[in-house]
Each structure stands twice: as structure tokens, then as C-alpha cells.
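Subject: for your reference before the review

Hello V.,

The reviewers asked for a structural picture of the protein, and I figured it would be easier to keep everything in one thread rather than splitting it across files. Below is the amino acid sequence we used in the manuscript, unchanged from the supplementary table.
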Amino acid sequence: MAKKTLGVIGGSGFYQMKTLERVEQIDLDTPFGRPSDPYFRGSIGDTEVVFLSRHGRGHRLLPSEINYRANIHGLKQLGVEYLVSISSAGSMREDLKPGDLMVPDQFIDRTFRRPSTFFGDGIVGHVSLADPVCAPLSRELVAAARAADATVKDGGTYFCIEGPQFSSRAESNLFRSWGVDVISMTAMQEARLAREAELCFATLVLVTDFDCWHQSVAAVDIGEILRVMKLNVELAQKAIANLARRLDALDRSCPCPRALDGAIITDPSVIPPKAAAGLNLIVGKYLKRQ
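And here is what came back from the structure prediction:
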């Protein structure tokens, strides 16, 4: 059986994978520029794991400054098939408390400054995001987190804002009225690009605070967020290690590996060679068929 490869994008507080063995550092260039940081490839049990720090070591990059396309393309270059994004977030629900985890199954995007597609420059593709995460991978991630003794909400809506500022109270109450579960700043672009790259994608949300809608909260306190985040990261490390050991339960019979089938609508005869070359890793097999 071929070795499975799990990609992990670490967010705020999740800057390294302590459980990786036989680790090597890999620096990559992509057609979309440089990723946030070098990749670290190692193994957990029989699973190969590729880790990337989303904000770079030392947390250098704002959410709007992250080169999401390069990050995802680099993971694809390294053979990643399954991708888990770790994301800290504020809770918009009374029953979803700081210290809890969540595995969302829906997203709402309110960002406006970020490239979030590999397409353009002469090649047009439209993938479905009706169900933006891989259901089988998400199920295994929930089970892995619960096996780490975490309190986990299975499913829910992740609301993605531009940032870097937190919301005003008026915004927080408005967003909450829309029925969202958590609010954060990064995972939406990763979900979009992972779908275009035909990766199985899931997000593990680490709940750090109640955002500012909650009457017990004077304001979003970054010091308190960091304290809760440290506790959450320990659970997340265990959950990812558990997931790596559970990947044999998955066989990629989900729709994710065929997300681009029929999605490219540009006539191959008019696609600029430069665009085709830059996207070859992602769309090459489809252009050859046409």
C-alpha cells in the first residue's frame, strides 16, 4: 500500500509539529511565489506528514499578507493528498466555549484583499464549494480530536473576516445574528484553493474566546487568547498525531480528487502557454484529455 501524505497548516500558536520523526526542511518556489515558510516533512507512524507555518516562524505575516496560493501549491508539489488547516477562532455561540475545538463543514467569506483562486490570466475554471470540506476526512478529524480528550463540535459555520483588527461590538452582534459558529481570519482561502488543487481538506478550529458580543467580555483580550491558545495547541497536536495514524481508514473515494473534472471551461486552443505551464501540476491532466 502506498504511503499516505497528510499536510498540516499551522496557525496562530501552532508553529511546529512536535510529534514528527525523521524531519527534513524543504524550501520551495512555486509559480505563485514563495510560501510563508519552509516546509517540514517527516512521519508519524506509517503516514508522511508535511507541515507549514501559515504566518511564518515568529508570526511575521498578517492574514492578508499570506501567500495562500503558494502555500497550497507547495503542498501539492510535495505530494500532499489530505490537508488539515489549524485555525484559532472566536466563538459566536454560548455553548461553544474557549478551550473547545470545532471541525466546521461550512464557510462564509467576508475577505476582500486576497487572491483565492489559481485560475485567471487566460484560463477559467469554476469548482463547486457547496460542500467546502471533505466529509470523510472531517469525520476522521473529529474522531481523532475526541480520542485526544478534546470537547469537539462536529460541523458548523466558520466566518472569515479580513482583519487584522477584531470586530466591533456591532459587527460581532450582526455576524452572530447570521447564525455563524466561529469567527476567524484565514481558513476560507485555504478551503477554496485546496478544492481547486483537488486535495481532501478539513479545518480544526481552536476556540480561544467569545469575541466581543458576549456580555462577560470587556473586549477581545489578546493575552487571554494566547493563554487559551497554548492549551488548545496541546490538544491539536495530539489530534493531528491521532489523525495521521487513522488515515488508513480513508481511500479518497470522495469527490475531492475529481473536483476539476468538467470545471475548466476555457478552450484549450486559446489558453496562453505560460498560464498552462504555471498550472500544469493542477490542471495538466485535464488539458491533455481535451
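For the response letter, the relevant points are probably these. The chain has seven helices and eleven strands. The two ends are 31 Å apart (CA to CA).

Happy to draft the paragraph if you're swamped.

O.
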